[in-house]
Design goal:
mainly alpha; 0% strand
């Protein structure tokens, strides 16, 4: 049986696993953004925290993802919970680092001008710093989102489902059609996520430029 016939016959199963993959990926990235952006803001203001926080996130990146999943299973069980936790911790470094870099790289004259017109520190953060740093922050989110698509495929090893389940089934049964029917949608999903984040990144750039003119 050729690949296209195999995919057509198993389209409903592949679609179900794809939707599950998307759900886990976007939920995990959402949590990573909620944690990572405030953390990046915090380390940009509290300089002594920058090295320890970035150091910890760097160390986490060095841990093999399979090993981390195995470590989490006794605490979080099997299924989606450890998979989401893994994706969140691996996604934090680019988001935290880019948020801190984007905020720290803003021209000092711009901040002084904001202070000169009577803005408070919070107003400067919300109305000046964050809009100007948005493209850099989005670049970090983009990296995390694309990487997460690949990481979620490993979730199959702990029973979390997704496209990794199809790939893993294909590996166990030495079925190339199964492997490809999971790998190709995962690859296309990664490209789609990258494109979507790229569009958002372009959309926020004019916003930050208009804020700068104000």
């Amino acid at each position: 049986m050729d690949l296209f016939t195999f995919i057509a016959r198993n389209a409903s199963t592949i679609l179900e696993r794809l939707l599950q993959h998307i759900q886990i990926t976007f939920f995990a990235i959402g949590i990573a953004i909620v944690i990572g952006v405030p953390l990046g803001i915090m380390v940009s203001y509290i300089k002594p925290l920058k090295k320890p926080v970035l150091g910890i996130t760097n160390v986490v990146q060095a841990i093999p993802s399979i090993a981390l999943l195995g470590f989490l299973v006794p605490f979080l069980g099997i299924g989606e919970k450890p998979a989401i936790f893994m994706v969140v911790v691996y996604s934090l470094l680019p988001i935290v680092k880019n948020t801190a870099t984007g905020l720290s790289g803003i021209n000092a004259d711009t901040i002084e001008a904001a202070k000169g017109i009577g803005m408070t520190e919070f107003q400067i953060l919300v109305k000046v710093k964050l809009p100007l740093a948005l493209p850099v922050i989005m670049a970090g989110i983009r990296i995390s989102a694309v990487t997460s698509v690949g990481l979620v495929t490993l979730a199959a090893f702990i029973g979390a489902g997704g496209l990794g389940y199809i790939i893993y089934s294909g590996i166990r049964t030495v079925n190339s059609n199964l492997i490809l029917s999971g790998a190709i949608p995962a690859c296309l999903l990664a490209l789609a996520v990258d494109w979507l984040c790229g569009v958002i990144e372009k959309l926020v750039t004019p916003i930050c430029l208009s804020k700068k003119r104000e």
